[in-house]
Amino acid sequence: MPPKRASSSKRKIPESDHDSDSEGSKLKTTKKAKLQSPVPDPDAQPTNTVLPVQIRFAPRIPGTLRFSAWNVCGLATSQKKGFKFYLEAEDPDILVLTETKMNNEPVDPLLSSRYPHRYWSISEKKGYSGTAVLSNHEPLSVDKTIPGHPEPSIVKGRIITLEFENHYFIATYVPNAGTNLKTLDVKNEWNKHFTTYIRELDKKKPVIWTGDLNVAPTEIGTQPFVLVLVLVLGLAFDVTFTDLSNAKKNWNKTPGYTEAETTAFRNILRPQPESEDDSESPSEQFVDVWRDLHPNLRHYTYFSYRFSCRTKGLGWRLDTFVLSKRITEKVKMCEIRSDIYGASDHCPITMEYEGTL
């Protein structure tokens, strides 16, 4: 049976009688104020554990292309839990699927009827990783490698690059650093070669990069208007926002939130000076689009099935869109589909982009 819908938290406020007495009116106004609902918490997210009964999204902005990325945690399993209902509601021009766990390219009428151009990168290890790009737009070329990476078997199943006339579109399922960080070296090797790769592509054409990046980017610094309050008014409060729950507890202990991983991601966004003698500050080369549009929100794309993480709101923001800075003004919307949970342990992320590929 579908989950019960949460009842509204708003309390009905009784209408007051007209009263000419000023003090009496003031008292009634005060009582009303106490009964009003508090301001909604902007960080609040749905806690459903199955897909909603009905899925509807706002129509896309005219003149835009809609892209969506979703770690499906096994496509076959996700399809049994309502995958198609999300796809029908979202209807993206390009759909990126990660952790597909496919052993062969699937024969799926739902996907083939919607997307004439389908590209699958399948791992050598059965039932493991896997990436797909399903597109309504035919690319000029398709590549499933990272040039210079010494271990093709590590790369296989984790990246697909589509070249279009005006852009490169990269889909990745970045390696995980593993339990007890046992595969952090593998992750570091990936980051090293991928950073070189994406920078080289960016020199030729602007890049759109998406998928499961397997890193909680890092803490977000003080926003300018908050900094003014702190310095001028002497206010003291926490003005740091993070991309995961319990950040301090997880730092350098949990895959996805180590100094090596967050530094590598930050170095893609803002390359470090080539030498210590370089006095110029690093320029921003790529932009984490969701964070740029939502600088202060604690919203997540991944909630572990274990320990009731979803119902407790304990999550990580691992999936995003990263774009070359020079094209970010073309982004008209980027949202985490926070209520699309249950067909996977991840929520999809969607972006609307103005122009042509």
Automatic annotation (TrEMBL):
Keyword NADP part of the UniProt annotation: no
Residue intervals of the Endonuclease/exonuclease/phosphatase domain: 70-346
Alphabetized InterPro entries for the sequence: AP_endonuc_1, Endo/exonu/phosph_ase_sf, Endo/exonuclease/phosphatase
Gene3D superfamilies per UniProt: Endonuclease/exonuclease/phosphatase
Compositionally biased residues, Basic and acidic residues: 12-26
Cofactor mode of binding and number, as noted: Probably binds two magnesium or manganese ions per subunit.
Enzyme Commission number: 3.1.-.-
Protein name, entry field: DNA-(apurinic or apyrimidinic site) endonuclease
Native species: Marasmius crinis-equi
Taxonomy of the source species: Eukaryota, Fungi, Dikarya, Basidiomycota, Agaricomycotina
